[in-house]
Write a structure and sequence with these properties.
mainly alpha; 3 helices; elongated
């Protein structure tokens, strides 16, 4: 089961997709893609924080992670 609510992803897809409707399977694929991206981002941010000898992920770690994850 996905952790990210389908309704939120569907709303974002509709909003940024020019108001087009979104099928259920498309929402499911988008949820999985978003969760995969966030998992990669979290790992990259964790590496950044640990490289600075911190136990807390800071906004700069997210910025650094975004540069690595793309």
């Amino acid at each position: 089961m996905a952790d990210l609510p389908n309704a939120v992803v569907k709303r974002l897809l509709t909003k940024h997709g020019g108001g087009l409707r979104v099928s259920g399977p498309a929402v499911d694929k988008a949820v999985q893609a978003v969760e995969d991206y966030i998992a990669r981002l979290a790992r990259a941010a964790q590496q950044s924080a640990e490289g600075e000898r911190r136990k807390t992920i800071m906004d700069g770690d997210i910025d650094a992670g975004r540069g690595q994850v793309g």
